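Handout, section 3.2

Students often ask what a structure token actually looks like in practice. Rather than define it abstractly, here is a full record for AlpA family phage regulatory protein. The first block is the sequence as you would receive it.
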Amino acid sequence: MPSVSDRPIKRSIRRNELREIVPLADSTIYEMEQRGEFPRRFALSPRCVVWDLAEVEAWLESRRTRPIPRAKHPDVAQRKFRPVKGQGRAQA
């Protein structure tokens, strides 16, 4: 399989088009890039970064085929501030 640098890039997309395709916050995309979980951006100029559209589409397809476990809800009964009142407790 050819590496990312060996493949010819057919089309690149800028941030505004990436936002239309991938509904994640910029900070989430950046963090995922740093962890290696999202295609890396590359610079066209000192002030312009783009993503390879084929890599982004492949990433989306892999997310469709592999289920992602949902995050667990926090146990609100363990909160220190504004604790949840139980059914048997009287309200103040």
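Discussion prompt for tutorial groups: The beta strands are 12-13, 42-45, 48-52. How would you have guessed this from the sequence alone?
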